[in-house]
Amino acid sequence: MSHFRQQSLGKSWPITALAKDYPRGWQVPRHRHRRGQLIYAKSGVMHVTTREGIWVVPPQRALWIPLGMEHEIQMEGNVAVRMLYMDRARSALFGAHCKVLSVPGLLRELILSAVDAHAGKRRERMAILADLLLHELQEAEQEALHIPVPTDPRLKSVCQRLLAGTSRVETLEQLAARVGASSRTLARLFESELQMSFAHWRQHVRLARALSQISQGRAIKAVARDAGYANCSAFSSMFRRVLGITPSDYLKQATAPSMR
Fold first, then answer.
1. How far apart are the C-alpha atoms of 250 and 214, rounded to whole Å?
2. Distance from C-alpha of 127 to C-alpha of 3, rounded to nearest angstrom
């Protein structure tokens, strides 16, 4: 039985944990859990797809997935995944929708310590960690690393092209022509279905691709060019505005050797 079906979670534990390392390109097929799940990439980048959209999870971030929410995971590069599972009462503290949370140093160590405590069946230590872990998770800042997905067939076709990287420089007018719609109709669909503009949505897609490339050690200049930016300065400004960190600092964190 797959670990994703919670064969070793120990139902009597209110918070349980699991560590799993995945190779580049690995895909975990669509599944769901009876418990709420916090999924954290100690290294590498994950793309998690749910009915609410596509969630980009780089290091220093974690994704909350409510209990019962179907999801699939695509690994970008080699990914060291650390997961916490919470019972119904504790899951209720984090809501019924997916969200990306910032993981500062203390929270990171608490997640890793909880994984170690559960692996060692150290129930008393897990109980001590749980209260502080829940407090820090509730205090964590929510991050805007979310790519919503549409239902309209025309908009869905455009978004699939952008996600696949086949329309990185095409304008809204050119994309609209491909799907037999006016640019005004397409722009309205972005706002009504995805609650963001075409430019904003494409920026999130570009950022998702950039995070994957940076985590694999690709030169920032090349990443900026691939994202459609004429120079590193403009790319760095966008990156810092969304993530609160420069690409170079993110690269240092993403490639820093782990102490665990």
1. 8
2. 23
User: CATH number for the domain including 25?
Assistant: 2.60.120.810
- CA 171 to CA 169: how far, in whole Å? 6
Per the CB < 8 A criterion, the answer to whether 140 and 30 are in contact is: no
Domains identified in the chain, total number: 2
Question: In residues, how long is the chain?
Answer: 260
Express each pLDDT in 63-77 by its tens digit.
Answer: 999 999 999 999 987
Find the helix or strand (DSSP H, E) in which 146 lies.
strand 146-147
What band does 7 get if pLDDT is binned at 50, 70 and 90?
A: very low
Could you tell me if 154 and 219 lie in one domain?
Answer: yes
- How far is residue 73's CA from residue 48's CA, in Å, rounded to a whole number? 5
CA separation for the pair 50, 118 (Å, rounded): 27
Distance (Å, rounded) from C-alpha 156 to C-alpha 169?
18
Element (H, E) at 157: helix 153-164
Six-digit token pair at 241?
């505005």
pTM, rounded to two decimals = 0.77
The answer to whether residues 33 and 122 belong to one domain is: yes
